[in-house]
Amino acid sequence: MGKPSTSILITGGAQRIGLHCAKRLSEEGYRVIISCRELDAQRAATLPPGVEVLLADFSTVPGIQGLIDQLHERDIRLRAIIHNAAIWLDDQQGPAALQQMFMVHMQAPYMINSQCAGLFPAGEPGDIIHLGDDITRKGSARHVAYCASKAGLEGLSRSFAAKLAPGIKVNCINPALIMFNDGDDEDYRARALAKSAMGMEPGPEVVYQSIRYFLDNPYLTGSTLPLNGGRHLK
Ligand SMILES: NC(=O)c1ccc[n+]([C@@H]2O[C@H](COP(=O)([O-])OP(=O)(O)OC[C@H]3O[C@@H](n4cnc5c(N)ncnc54)[C@H](OP(=O)(O)O)[C@@H]3O)[C@@H](O)[C@H]2O)c1
Description:
Blueprint: E1 7-10, H1 16-27, E2 31-36, H2 41-44, E3 52-55, H3 61-73, E4 78-83, H4 96-116, E5 127-131, H5 144-164, E6 169-175, H6 186-193, H7 205-216, E7 224-227
Parallel strand pairs: 1-2, 1-4, 2-3, 4-5, 5-6, 6-7
Helix pairs in contact: 1-7, 3-4, 4-5
Bound molecules: NADP nicotinamide-adenine-dinucleotide phosphate.
NADP nicotinamide-adenine-dinucleotide phosphate (NAP) is lined by residues 12, 14-18, 36-38, 57-59, 84-87, 104, 131, 133, 175, 177-179.
């Protein structure tokens, strides 16, 4: 296939799940743009060839607006936006934690979706995919703020699906455990694995597969995919 004229934007795409999806989408011939807050030489070396990088910090409204302005100034045509950027803060980290997570999980997707819908060419497939969290299914006594901000993201997903249909499909993927963090100890890992029926750390390829499921299916919008290894069965 010839080089596509449209791009897939992955926020927070310089590491872990976002980086894996950037690599896989690039391999499949998509043009990929990632956002991240910083790019040093070590990180730059891990990026797949051809991936464009836009620097943006979603901690403030001007920071989010900066990414939107860069997309407009470069006259980017979009095939998809994947809202992958996230932070995970504990309720013990103080009352401002909710505000910080709100900025990344809700304010940024709200502003980007509102101001970038016009960058999707009319008459061509268009997708917005939000990465939420399976924890929102039940709530969390220990992570009230995180859970609320991710639930808000899922709410945004449904409302934008209604607003942007039929031109742009908007969906949400709610993962449970996908990848451990380097600092997770054996005890934590064992407890986390025991929570799902599948009992495994699947790795980021399952997120890529879920993204492809939404990109390739013309009849899904306003949906949430629980990518949880059967965690709801236990
Ligand atoms: N990993 C899992 O097992 C799991 C489970 C459930 C849900 N999820 C969801 O899946 C997605 C990917 O997970 P992950 O573990 O790969 O994520 P991650 O590495 O923890 O974070 C992804 C990116 O978010 C960006 N980010 C954080 N704060 C930001 C800010 N203020 N402004 C702009 N970008 C910011 C970071 O970008 P920088 O490069 O700038 O630091 C980071 O690379 C997330 O939405 C996560 O909530 C993951």
